[in-house]
């Protein structure tokens, strides 16, 4: 069966109203050493699938108008999302500075599209259908493209019996914490016309707010990545399964006083299972990266609602032989120790190291035959974001930054500590993972 086509119906740009903007709304927003390394990465793409109301009074035109109105009102307090990036260059003394320029604010792009398919086509498919990637705008854009492309684009795709809201946001301006903070603010505005959340940002203590990059032209550092063919599948971990894995991991490392978290237990399980199906040499190193929010790791800490992308990767390492020879608890403890060691000193050591040679990362640098990368978080309140259609049926992601070994974590829709993990693997590994005895045993009848 051919993949359904997503048809573009209309597009426009949404700006905040002129009244109500703060006095800081025209001030440049300088990017930090947490954010600038990711100039070559794709936009972050997350979306929510809703059921379309069954009553005949529902009007998609009225609904879209209300989304646009509430989005404009929300941008009053999140005005940088309507802006674009800018680069200030000079020759004497040499300077190359990339920043967010609120004085150039064409707006947030808002797209309306249609697709002749049903909600069940998304929810019951064994693998994530390729059409899901078409529910997102700005496919293949990298963060540096924010000079000419919107920093945020929202695509509302109308299905036969559902509505998908796909958001593509420049990762330089928002990590997952900030993105879902914005979505919660938009949801509040849509439902109650009131808003309690605001854009908050401050300079990092101990660092020059203006970072000069050692370039004269973007061609010296902009690198695009060709993504391989891969399969994506969701694995659901019920609250009971998560509790059982956490208990098992902690029993297996009970000779220590360190407690393994639920996330670390689930990540350790997948790290082991994926390493097993890859069949790499036993003496080779295998790596498990966990993306981390550094707000509270810094001293002094940043506020929880600091708007930006203060993220880094925490790395657990082991040889393939050791990871396979020991149990779940041993693997989880490797991750737990890596997390515990990522304190203020470790955070600043990575920052200082990058500042000595401020070269944006190549996305291919995360690609390695023995690596798994965990991004997003089951702690994000994705299902708390409602837009007049009730609780979302599912959360999904676009094709941005996808590669063999990427694990995207979501809260389970049923709550209670449940999790969904979107596993992205080369097809040959996905087939073997589905038959992996340890994973089958962990998931039980849900597999």
From TrEMBL:
PANTHER family the record matches: FAMILY REGULATORY PROTEIN, PUTATIVE (AFU_ORTHOLOGUE AFUA_3G14730)-RELATED, HXXXD-TYPE ACYL-TRANSFERASE FAMILY PROTEIN-RELATED
InterPro entries, per database record: CAT-like_dom_sf, Sec_Metabolite_Acyltrans
Entry keyword Transferase: yes
Organism encoding this protein: Centaurea solstitialis
Keyword Transferase belongs to the record: yes
Protein name (database record): Uncharacterized protein
GO molecular function, one term: transferase activity
Keywords of the record: Transferase
